[in-house]
Amino acid sequence: MRTIVVDHPLVAHKLTVLRDKTTPSPVFRQLTEELVTLLAYEATREVRTQPVTIETPVATTIGTAFTKPTPLVVPILRAGLGMLEGMTKLVPTAEVGFLGMARDEHTLDIITYAERLPEDLKGRQVFVLDPMLATGGTLREAIKFLFRRGADEVTCICLLAAPEGLAKLEEELSDTNVTVVLASIDERLDEKAYIVPGLGDAGDRLYGVASVLEA
């Protein structure tokens, strides 16, 4: 397993605005999209390509194209959806699947509640989108799920990670072909398993908190 922290002034600036609790949801969504595109640039550095012959208006030349099957992008619902646009802008020909996994706030167990993925991922490079790597439980289960489907390489793009979550990921997936690309490794987890200093609940800040009205 490899961990890459992207060190760039634009990444640091956009992350700072995301952390600010006064940043409204529309701005938070826009900056998340922009930040993911920057992280995806690094995450796709080793995407598989092949030479292709094309005709320009002037001459024949050799260019570069993705190999088949094309990369698969898998956002973890629901917060990962806020990262999807930024990723597909950079890799518009990638296919998109969905995986619904959530952490029970009381037991911290991981619950899988939805999935829309090919049955056979053999030979696929898979890019997982999940903004917060806190305990690492959700991401670990997602990666294991993808490997069981046959994926041979998984790259995870996260905004933030806690050292505890990264350590657990390394402990369980050290011998696998996994890369984690981050904007920052933060200080620690608090007693409620939130990243400190973090940026709060990414899903709530992207989409707001849905409330149910009583009849």
SSE layout and pairings?
Blueprint: E1 2-5, H1 9-19, H2 25-43, E2 49-55, E3 60-66, E4 72-77, H3 81-90, E5 95-96, E6 98-103, E7 110-116, E8 125-129, E9 132-133, H4 137-148, E10 153-161, H5 163-173, E11 178-185, E12 188-189, E13 195-196, H6 202-207
Parallel strand pairs: 1-11, 4-5, 4-6, 4-8, 8-10, 9-10, 10-11
Antiparallel strand pairs: 2-3, 6-7, 12-13
Helix pairs in contact: 1-2, 2-3
Characterise the protein shown here.
With 215 residues, the protein is of the alpha/beta class. Helix content is 32%, strand content 31%. The chain contains 6 helices and 13 strands. The protein has helices at residues 9-19, 25-43, 81-90, 137-148, 163-173, 202-207; strands spanning 2-5, 49-55, 60-66, 72-77, 95-96, 98-103, 110-116, 125-129, 132-133, 153-161, 178-185, 188-189, 195-196. The strands form 3 sheets. Strands 1, 4, 5, 6, 7, 8, 9, 10 and 11 form a 9-stranded mixed β-sheet that branches. Strands 2-3 form a two-stranded antiparallel ribbon. The protein has a two-stranded antiparallel ribbon with strand order 12-13. α3 links the parallel β4 and β5 (95-96). α2 (25-43) packs across α3. It is globular and about 60 Å long. The chain starts with a strand and ends in an 8-residue tail after the last helix. The model is unreliable at 210-215 (pLDDT under 50).
